[in-house]
Amino acid sequence: MPISFTLNGRSRTADVPSSTLVSDLLRDHMNLTGTHVGCDTSQCGACVVLLDGEAVKSCTLLAPVLAGRSLTTIEGLAKGEKLHPMQEAFHTQHGLQCGFCTPGMVMTAIDLVNHNPVPTEAEIREGLEGNICRCTGYQNIVKAIQAGAAAMAASTTAAAA
Amino acid sequence: MATITGVGAAPLRKEDLRFLTGRGQYVADMKRLDMAIGVFVRSPHAHAVLKGIDASAALQAPGVLAVLTGQDVAADGLGSLPCGWAITGKDGVPMKEPSFPILAQGKVRFVGDMVAFVIAESIEQARAAAELVIVDYEELPAVVGVLEAVSDGAPQLYDDVPGNLCCDWALGDEAATDAAFAKAAHVARLSLINNRLIGNPMEPRAALAEYNPGNGHYTLFTTSQFPHVVRWLMSALVLKIPEQKVRVVAPDVGGGFGVKQFLYGEEAVITWAAKKVGVPVKWVSDRAEGFMSDRQGRDHVTEAELALDENGKFLGFRVHTLANMGGYLSTFGPNIPTNLYAPLLGGVYTTPAIYCNVKVVFTNTVPVDAYRGAGRPEATFVVERIVDVAAADMGIDRVELRRRNMIPKEAYPYQTPVLVEYDSGDPVGCLDRAETVADVAGFASRKAASRAAGRFRGLGYSTYVEACGLAPSRFAGRLGARGGLYESATLRVHPTGQVTVLIGTHNHGQGHETTFAQIVSERLGIPFENVDIVFGDTDKVQFGMGTYGSRSLVVGGSALNKASDKVIAKGRKIAAHLLEAGEQDIEFEAGVFSVAGTDRTKSFVEIALAAYVPHNYPLEVLEPGLEEQAYYDPINFTYPGGAHICEVEIDPDTGVVRIERYTGVDDVGTVINPMIVEGQLHGGIVQGIGQALCEAAIYDDQSGQLLSGSFMDYCMPRADMSPHMDVSTHSTPCTHTPLGVKGCGEVGTIGSPAAVINAVVDALSHLGVTHVDMPATPNRIWRVIQNATLPRALAAE
Questions:
Q1: Low-confidence ranges of chain B (pLDDT < 70)
Q2: The B48-54 sheet, strands edge to edge
Q3: B103 alpha carbon, distance to own chain's centre
Q4: What are B552-601's pLDDT values in tens digits?
Q5: Which residue, of B272, B368, B587, B656, has the greatest Cβ tally within 10 A?
Q6: Do A128 and B683 touch (CB under 8 A)?
Q7: Which superfamily is assigned to A2-76 in CATH?
Q8: Residue A44: CB partners within 8 Å, gap ≥ 6?
Q9: Measured between CA atoms, how close is B586 to chain A, in angstroms?
Q10: How many C-beta neighbours within 10 Å does residue B127 have?
């Protein structure tokens, strides 16, 4: 069935069976492989994307849900060569190693900061409950989200000024 | 002058951008327009006779291209998976080495053992057809634990491996150790298990293979830490196809931790299948499949005894271990609980006599092999636990007991009684610094505050050493290695003076693209931005043993350093010609060749250009071009180590252990990029905390089913249970690696489990608790508290 939605700011239509998972739609039909699948029980969070700005696990979402809505993936965050402040923060704080969990971490982090612009360390750790990283021990991810939150606030302020 | 970003600088990582923007290229991301999808049929039984396979219904299912079984493997005369280490037991008895077929032959030996490979046009069709493969199993009793496996009457995995005993192995002087015990004032004793772990890199394993009938070339894209070794073993020993016609590519790989450093049956089957079906074939493991097929780690049962004199000096150490190999020998399997375990039992102490016996045992479980640390965390856990037990027994402070027995800095190089000679180290210095950083002085008041709040607080130490940088080939060969353990690097200077490095290690999170570029920037005096690192493709990179055992910087970095020497040496010849000076008068520093004592110079870029435009060039004696290759075989292992201090608080009502402080002071030798080293330490420590507090692979002891087979049952460390860590380095440069580096990939995982458990035991010591097995889950700790030998009311005094 044809499903029309906005993907990273572009209008798209996908004709896929209604049983298609959003993660598969992105990876297999839209050629956007930045959204990763690291488990089969919705535990790892590597597949997190933003649906109308809210973090969701795309491995647990069926494609028809997208109809008329707006989806943002890791590929859609940067503006040209300018990284989103949260991407930049993961870079400057060494918040990634192998990179596999990173897209899901960045998307979750953006959602977390959207809901809580100045999160404490404990709130960040709590907020990452649905994302597993095996490389970093989380410390630099937490640091990155703190830095990313500050940068997002600054860029909002700058935009408003 | 060029801007050098060299040793000790912390540039941000070159590799980040592609991962942050979703442009990484992992195997699961790869597609071919005409590709088919493969699914493995795996044994649902831990132990069974394979009486027959009926694939007729599956073959008729929609979209199915082929169903391959062990019969096809036999018909094509394919080989089995080789074991890379042939260890020798006591009295010179070689290990038992049963065949590990790529698809089961005659029997299955663990849940997940591969029985058939179904290839279809889509994943849905392949999965549906796999359900139609009818396998006739005659179930046999299974055995999953090592103690049961060596008992009389245990189910036998192999007809020709009596008692399921692969090898009865030993290291050390048994008589000298017995003599030490005979004169001991005290003997501390400890029985422990080292829990089985599942590595779970976040990227599941995957492979894509294609065959070109036009030239007979195979290409395998695979999630591997060592593509050249996969090519070598798979072509020569399994598929028996020409090595030069096989290309193995390991592109971006989403974490390894050892899990991806073996030749897997899946890799061989899919490569073979691609030719058989005539189209590219792709397989992506799902997580459940990974749990039942990724090689697992640890799984020891150990009895240890430490002999001490009346002052607490260690006299002798005796260790008996049963190590689980699972159902078959994996690539490094038997090496891990033997050669990578017993030589570390000296720890950072002067124990003069050590004897270790290891029984390597088959069971009906997933094969066990290297997992981050591999043997060394197990050794460290035994040593650091028994030191605490001895201290408690003798009423000596555990830090004081450690200090009395530590190897002093000035005693290095230090030959232990168990093969290894530590080249350098300063365990006392690491401990001193860790005690300050951890504010041990303030612990008593923090403990009092916890007690006032009804909680138990404990402090745990782990002062440890490891051996890494695997390894001197000659030494490894004596221990049973069937391959060498050097590394190679090619330094290709382009006409512009920009550089491509082709290196045989594999980067899957360690930051090699950054660290190795720093080495080249430092050595050649060129901008860091002008250096790119290529790895993971056997068609591009000459050769390599890959990345594992904290070897990439230690061995690969040394090869790169050596290739840099060669480039500089050739550059000096070119400069001598251009500057009309003797070669011995040419100096090279910070990217500039100069005639000593003059202002006559040539930049590195000018020399590179001259090498490729050899108009004014000594062609009679020197070839054009500027590209050098080096192979480096290590002189010794390297011995990173350090002191970790963990502080926990336990809620007695729930049994929850919270890590309140974690301090690591590690000696990793010279630090190239402190940001990356710190990240490696963080990740390693949390993996060790995972072993200590939550991770465990649990099999049903009757059926052999893996009960912890998903992220809902196998507890991975999450952000909210991981502590904030204070890590720093206290380095003594390695004396035999050219850059002074020791390696840092595994130290965290090796040092931390003992620190955590020692803290847990300390927190519970007032209840009479002397040991807690890992993982210290809330359930286990709550039960320990409930069953404590001292009543709680009394203990709370």
A1: 1-2, 789-797
A2: B107-108, B48-54, B134-139
A3: 26
A4: 999 999 999 999 999 999 999 999 999 999 999 999 999 999 999 999 99
A5: B368
A6: no
A7: Beta-grasp domain (3.10.20.30)
A8: A38, A101, A104, A131, A132, B202, B287, B711
A9: 40
A10: 13
Q: What φ, ψ does residue B513 adopt, rounded to 5°?
A: -65, -25
Q: How many whole angstroms from its chain centre is CA A106?
A: 5
Amino acid at B27: V
Residue whose tokens read 């000593």: B596
Nearest to B249, CA basis, from B224, B285, B214:
B224
Cis peptide before B775 (omega within 30 of 0): yes
Provide the 8-state DSSP code for B12: P
pLDDT tens string A61-83: 999 999 999 999 999 999 999 99
Give the pairing type, strands B246-249 and B217-222.
parallel
The class (CATH top level) of B16-22+486-632 is alpha beta
ipTM > 0.95 for the complex: yes
Counting every residue written for chain A, the total comes to: 161
Identify the helix (H) or strand (E) that includes residue A141.
helix A139-160
Q: What is the pLDDT of residue B797?
A: 45
Rounded to the nearest 5 degrees, what angle is found at the Cα of B444, between the Cα atoms of B430 and B395? 75
Residue B154 has what DSSP assignment? P
Q: In what order do the strands lie in the sheet with B300-308?
A: B165-172, B353-362, B314-326, B300-308, B186-194
Cross-sheet strand order for the sheet of B601-603:
B586-589, B592-595, B601-603
Q: Would an 8 Å CB–CB cutoff place B32 in contact with chain A?
A: no
Same fold, B16-22+486-632 and B300-470+636-795: yes
Domain ranges of chain B: 16-22+486-632, 33-140+205-255+260-286, 300-470+636-795
Residues of A in contact with B720 (CB under 8 A): 122, 125-126, 128-129
Chain B residues with CB inside 8 Å of A106's CB?
20
Of residues B224, B223, B222, the one with CA closest to residue B261 = B224
Q: Which positions 203-222 of B are in contact with A (Cβ < 8 Å)?
A: 203-204
User: How far is residue B73 CA from its own chain's centroid?
Assistant: 31
Q: Where are the alpha helices (DSSP H) in B56-208?
A: 56-60, 70-75, 123-132, 146-149, 174-182
Q: What is the pLDDT of residue B791?
A: 59
Q: Can you tell me the distance from the alpha carbon of B656 to that of B672, in angstroms, rounded to the nearest whole number? A: 39
| Gap between the Cα atoms of B420 and B744, Å rounded | 19
Chains A–B, number of C-beta pairs less than 8 Å apart: 176
pLDDT digits (tens, 9 = 90+) for B430-482: 999 999 999 999 999 999 999 999 999 999 999 999 999 988 999 999 999 99
Residue B199, token pair as written in the block: 């590595």
Non-local (6+) Cβ contacts of B382 within 8 A are B190, B192, B302, B304, B319, B345
DSSP 8-state code for residue B583: G
Q: Which residue in A has a C-alpha nearest to residue B719's C-alpha?
A: A125
B16 contacts on A by Cβ (under 8 Å): 90-91, 96, 99
Q: What is the pLDDT of residue B65?
A: 98
Helix axes B512-524, B557-578, angle to 10 degrees: 30
CB neighbours of residue B178 within 10 Å: 14
Q: Domain extents for chain A?
A: 2-76, 85-160
Q: What is the DSSP letter of B276?
A: H
Chain B residues in contact with A26 (beta carbon < 8 A): none
Question: Residue B790: its pLDDT value, please?
Answer: 63
Total residues belonging to chain B: 797
> CATH class for domain A85-160?
mainly alpha
Secondary structure element (H or E) that encloses residue B499, with its range:
strand B499-503
Neighbours of B160 (CB within 10 A): 7
pLDDT of res. B467 = 96
Evaluate the omega torsion of the peptide bond into residue B697 and state whether it is cis, within 30 degrees of 0. Answer: no
pLDDT value, residue B190:
98
User: B300-470+636-795 belongs to which CATH class?
Assistant: alpha beta
